[in-house]
Specification:
Blueprint: H1 3-11, H2 21-33, H3 37-48, H4 53-70, H5 82-97, E1 99-101, H6 126-139, H7 143-171, H8 182-197, H9 207-210, H10 213-220, H11 224-238, H12 247-277, E2 287-289, H13 290-295, H14 304-309, E3 313-314, E4 322-324, H15 325-329, E5 336-339, E6 342-344, H16 349-361, E7 365-366, H17 368-376, H18 387-398, E8 404-405, H19 409-418, H20 448-453
Antiparallel strand pairs: 1-6, 2-4, 3-4, 5-6, 7-8
Helix pairs in contact: 1-3, 1-7, 2-3, 4-5, 4-7, 7-8, 7-12, 8-10, 8-11, 11-12, 16-17, 18-19
Length: about 450
């Protein structure tokens, strides 16, 4: 039985929202009888057979992950371990959809040893989590295995869609087993969008909220018309000319909406960035004096305490604090938070730069000369590195025997120096709470007297 076949079998788990009682008992038996993961994987194959649809899904994930995977450090099996798996999955979801997944985030530009499986929490069956933990902890993960894990996480989000849609149906007195006509379907989709974008997180969403979801969307979300247009476009792409929408088709449309909303939101992020860049205290510095930040007006109201806690405030000169543009764009007040375990945030421009560097290196480390050559040829920048930046690059290499680990904090610091508008300054782990609860910022808006002080 080939490893590829076994893992394709595992992928078939993605279509199962809840494992049967009998199957759970067999899995527990396999776990008790052997610590070798092949025994458990064989049990999964016997119970489930194969699912051909999963092959195409996994190929897509492998294609998206392969550049980053090639550039990550590997064990003797050619597999990556927990920190690298977290990094790769974080990159995947933030680049694909603008999703910041709780449990995959970094701390201070460095990736600690915590397993990415923590991001699954209770959203997948315990037996599946144990299987992934065993595979990752004892063997590491190949590219294909990482794609299986990514696809499993994607299924977590799709189950969220189903759960939220059921609440909407119930709140609108609709029956899940009955199909909707086009007018009904559009009303449900717009209601879902309101609940998803401006409503309570899924864990707190109730049927009582459903009746005011559309009104809240139009009142609280400035891009409600664009969101509605996006829904219509996706619906027409998936079901052109359809006049009947069953629950499964609604889930398909709304899942795609969740995938593409991040790109819509990022257009607003770029507008915010342009406004801040126009107020840079020195052209190209990636920093805005705090007083100029507040002077920009609507949308820039976070208190100094909040900005400091989120790592978005440069206080190297305490008398003249400055907002770090990329750190600010990455903070939770810029995100939508439809669920307790992921947010939809600004796309990280530094990630696309790292993609190009990784693609050129195809290794976790490179010489200063090679990296300088790659950076100077980055598309849309085409820049010459200053003597100071070249010297700093040599200093990073000096800490690592002449080679530069491109996934470490020192290189992240260098990338911030080279691209201060695109790459966040990486604070030391524990110094900032960059991915704390979004709600806390509401209570941290700057007061009028404090705003005037700057």
């Amino acid at each position: 039985m080939s490893a590829m076949k076994i893992l394709r079998v595992l992928a078939s788990l993605l279509v199962i929202a809840q494992l049967s009682s009998a199957f759970r008992k067999r899995v527990r038996g396999a776990l008790r009888s052997s610590t070798e993961p092949k025994a458990l994987l064989a049990e999964l194959e016997q119970a489930l057979g194969t699912e051909e649809w999963a092959i195409h899904e996994l190929q897509g994930f492998e294609e998206d992950l392969k550049v980053t995977f090639k550039a990550l450090p590997k064990n003797a099996r050619g597999a990556i371990e927990a920190p690298s798996a977290r990094y790769a999955l974080h990159r995947l979801f933030i680049q694909r959809h603008g999703w910041m997944v709780k449990g995959l985030e970094t701390g201070g530009g460095a990736w600690d040893a915590e397993s990415p499986i923590v991001a699954m929490d209770a959203h997948v069956p315990k037996e599946m989590r144990e299987l992934f933990e065993d595979r990752l902890g004892n063997y590491g993960m190949t590219l294909h295995e990482l794609a299986v894990l990514a696809a499993t996480m994607k299924k977590m989000f799709e189950r969220d869609v189903e759960q939220r849609l059921r609440i909407v149906y119930e709140g609108m007195n609709l029956v899940e087993k009955e199909s909707l006509d086009l007018a009904q379907a559009h009303e449900v989709m717009l209601t879902y969008a309101g609940a998803y974008i401006v409503g309570p997180q899924l864990e707190d969403l109730t049927t009582a909220y459903v009746s005011k979801a559309v009104a809240d969307l139009k009142k609280k979300f400035p891009r409600s018309k664009q969101a509605e247009d996006l829904l219509i476009k996706i619906r027409m792409d998936i079901a052109p000319g359809s006049g009947s929408f069953d629950f499964a088709l609604m889930v398909k449309v709304l899942s795609k909406f969740g995938h593409q909303l991040g790109a819509l939101e990022d257009t607003e992020c770029q507008v915010m960035k342009e406004r801040l860049v126009a107020r840079e205290h020195r052209s190209g510095s990636g920093r805005v004096r705090l007083g100029d930040f507040y002077a920009e007006g609507k949308g820039f109201a976070e208190s100094p305490e909040y900005l400091r806690a989120r790592g978005a405030l440069d206080e190297s000169n305490p008398e003249d604090p400055k907002v770090l543009i990329p750190n600010y764009l990455a903070n939770p007040s810029m995100c939508l938070t439809p669920s307790g375990y992921y947010s939809i945030c600004c796309f990280d421009e530094c990630e696309s730069l790292m993609d190009q560097i990784e693609n050129g290196l195809e290794a976790p480390m490179g010489t200063p000369e090679k990296i300088a050559s790659l950076v100077t040829s980055l598309s849309s920048f085409n820049r010459t590195l200053s003597p100071t930046l070249l010297q700093l690059l040599d200093e990073v290499a000096g800490h690592h025997g002449g080679m530069i680990p491109v996934h470490g904090r020192l290189f992240s610091q260098w990338m911030h120096q080279a691209f201060p508008r695109e790459c966040s300054f990486p604070h030391v782990t524990g110094v900032v709470d960059r991915y704390g609860q979004q709600d806390s910022w509401v209570h941290s808006k700057v007061q009028h007297d404090e705003r005037q002080r700057y």
